[in-house]
Structure formats: C-alpha cells, structure tokens
Recover the amino acids of this structure.
C-alpha cells in the first residue's frame, strides 16, 4: 500500500488471457500506455515473482503486462487513476475481442530512484468465469487504441453522477457486470438492461421488448435474413428475462427445445455477442459515439430511432 510520502512514476498491470498475436517487442498503444512484449522487463518479472513467493499466489503465464507512465510523479491518490485506466482497458478488450482479459496483479514503481523502488498494489487469483483468450491482431491495434480512448473519455466504471449520464455509459456498466458474472440467469437480465439502456424510450414504457428488439436488429445489420434471425432469438431471450424477473416457473422453460435445436443456455452467449457487436459499433463510429455518449433529449432520441427503423 502506498503512503502519502511515496511517489511513483509508473504503474504495471498484468492481464491474464490476453495477447497481441505476433508481438515480439513493446508496443505503445497511445502516449503513456504500452503493451509490453512477451519477455516484458526483467526487473518487473523479478519483483512480481518475489511478491508471489510471499503470498503463495501463482501467476498465469498467458497474459501481458500493461505499462502506464505518468506525466509527473504522483502520490497516494494516483493509484485510483491507474486502476481506472486498467479497468477501462480490460473492458475494451472484452468488447473488442471477447475472451477473459482478467486483471491479475498491479504494482507501482519509481523509475527515477536508484535503485528502482517498487511498491505492491495487489495480486488476484487466477480464477475466471470463462477460458477463452482475448487475442488482438497487430493490424487491429489502431482501432483498439481509438476504442480505448473513446471509452475511457466517458469513464463508464467510475463516474456515476447524473450530470454525466449517457445511454452508452449506462450500457457499458451493465455489460461489464454481465460479462463477469457466472450466474447465467443474472447475465440474461443484465444484458437486457444493457440493450434497454441503448434502445428504449425514457418515458414511454409500452412495447419495450418489441422496440428494443426492432431497434437493436436494425442497428446491427441490413441483411434481411440475419435481422429476422436476431429478432426471433431476442424475443425468446426476452421471454427468459421476463420469467426470471416475474417469478415464472423458469425450470419449466428450461426443458423447452428452442430454435435450431438449441436449449435455453444458448441465449446468454447469444445476448453477450449481440451486445458486444452493438457497443463496438458505437465506439468505432464517430457519429454514433457522439450521439450515444452524451445526454440526449427525448426529441433527439425520437429522431434517431425513427431514422433507424424507417
């Protein structure tokens, strides 16, 4: 734990189940933020290994170090800035590439001191609710950087004030909660809150399910057959959501054989993929980002949704 009189120049976070394919050296994603190469820095590895030996926690070997450089030395309040950066970056990885992208550990250090002084942040266990990795291609790094900068600008996991509310910020918060839960029933509920944050009317609560399904489908694709398939699957998934929230006999619905022979447990992953595609499109397109990342008026929303479905 840092003390008031201890200053740091850098923060390092280790993200498990994440790699950049064919990366052989350090990569500067944006100024001040680097993805360290597979070997990382020897001194960081040595310090983290020593820290692990005292805690009994073993580091997973399928991740990358993220190095964050401050513009000047900071003291106790700074680690919260680093934590926000790390959380935002992990959320971007989950939206951009799927997979786990799970924060394992954080350390801080003062590069200006001689010898370099390290301070432990935290180490976490290696458990995760999924087993797939978030793999990024080298050619996708510019888009990843742009997506990170846009997401971090609206501080979805930190700022909860009403003045800073936007549809996109609210949706990102619930997507993050859904992504990290292994309770499939709650995952369905949270993912529909994510979609409703983006596509429902604030004051008119009639036909919410139909409006959200129609708008989400039209937003995602112009392909008629794909739209039909998404629309139908969203309806089935929404039925599950309603049965969960309203105390219906969910066990009875589990026994149903659904579209294409899928059982009910297909729908949490289906919903997550739909939400990921929508959020990535909003973060990638400047015009969409400008609309959904700010507090809009009812008239602006009405015009947007009308143009979307017509």
């Amino acid at each position: 734990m840092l003390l008031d009189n201890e200053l740091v120049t850098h923060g390092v976070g280790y993200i498990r189940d994440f790699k950049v394919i064919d990366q052989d050296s350090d990569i500067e994603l944006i100024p001040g933020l680097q993805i360290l190469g597979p070997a990382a820095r020897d001194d960081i590895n040595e310090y983290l290994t020593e820290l692990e030996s005292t805690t009994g926690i073993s580091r997973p070997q399928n991740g990358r170090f993220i190095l964050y450089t401050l513009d000047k030395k900071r003291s106790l309040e700074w680690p919260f800035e680093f934590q926000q950066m790390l959380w935002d970056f992990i959320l971007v990885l989950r939206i951009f590439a799927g997979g786990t992208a799970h924060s394992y550990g954080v350390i801080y250090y003062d590069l200006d001191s001689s010898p370099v002084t390290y301070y432990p942040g935290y180490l976490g266990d290696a458990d995760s609710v999924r087993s797939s990795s978030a793999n990024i291609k080298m050619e996708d790094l510019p888009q990843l950087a742009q997506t990170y900068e846009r997401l971090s600008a609206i501080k979805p996991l930190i700022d909860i004030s009403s003045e800073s509310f936007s549809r996109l910020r609210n949706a990102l918060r619930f997507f993050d909660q859904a992504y990290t839960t292994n309770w499939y029933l709650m995952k369905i509920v949270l993912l529909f809150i994510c979609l409703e944050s983006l596509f429902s009317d604030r004051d008119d609560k009639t036909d919410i399910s139909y409006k959200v399904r129609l708008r989400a489908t039209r937003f995602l694709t112009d392909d008629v057959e794909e739209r039909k398939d998404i629309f139908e699957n969203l309806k089935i998934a929404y039925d599950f959501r309603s049965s969960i929230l309203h105390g219906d006999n969910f066990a009875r619905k589990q026994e149903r054989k659904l579209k294409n022979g899928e059982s009910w447990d297909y729908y949490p992953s289906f919903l997550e993929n739909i939400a990921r595609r929508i959020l990535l499109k909003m973060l990638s397109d400047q015009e969409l980002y400008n609309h959904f990342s700010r507090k809009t008026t009812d008239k602006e929303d009405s015009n947007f949704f009308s143009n979307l479905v017509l």
